[in-house]
Structure formats: C-alpha cells, structure tokens
Amino acid sequence: MMNTTGHSDTVTEGIRVRVAAQYLPDQSDPDTLNYLFVxxxxxxxxxxxxxxxxxxxxxxRDANNGLNEVRGDGVVGEFPDLGPGESFEYxxxxxxxxxxxxxxxxxxxxxPDGATFEALIGRFFLxxxxxxxxxx
Length: 136
What we know:
mainly beta, Immunoglobulin-like, 5-stranded antiparallel beta sheet, 4-stranded antiparallel beta sheet, 9 strands
C-alpha cells in the first residue's frame, strides 16, 4: 500500500515488508545521469509460521520508464529466517539515470514444510522529496 510518504508497507502471508528510500545528493552526479538512492527495508513475521528468505526480485523504473530487474539469492549476503514476531532490517542502494523513479518487487520465502511463497514489496518512490527513511 502506498502512502503520502512515498514509502511502502505490504503484508503477504503474515510477512510485513516496509521500505523507504532517500536521495543522496552528495553521492549523485546529475551531469552523468547518476542519481543514488539508499533504501531501508524492515521485514517482520507477523504470522504464526516460520519463514526463511531465499531470493529477492526488484523491479526498478526510472522517470523515462526505463526498466531494470534485479534477481538474486538472499539480501545483503544474508538469508533471514524469521520466526513469529521476529524482524530483520537492512539497507541497500540503487542508482538510476533520472531524478526520480520507483521500486517494487518480491521476496521468495520458504516455510518449514518446504512450501514457498512470494512476499510482495509494494511500490515506493526513489525521489528527492520523500519522507526521511528514519520515519519508516
């Protein structure tokens, strides 16, 4: 679900994923169309069953509707295994060639019985005027 902050907050099968991004002007170079955004992710298991993160899938769009998809194992080199009530937080970054864009995607989780599911990552904005990531 999108809100007025530009952040996202989505729950899928008991896994809540909240994300916020922030523009880093001092590490960006508009002359070379390189805009850097850092984003903060908080994933929480609000359900009753354990869930282990296996993979990530990001869909990154810039203001010109350029599309970049990123797929990989884990997040920041880790595979959080969340029991009920547990959370995991990390920060990462994304470069885009325009002053604003969006990100969204999913995490693939596995339950103890081997069943997998996609926890959605709601769309959030990569933009200079979003709320600070500390407000997540």
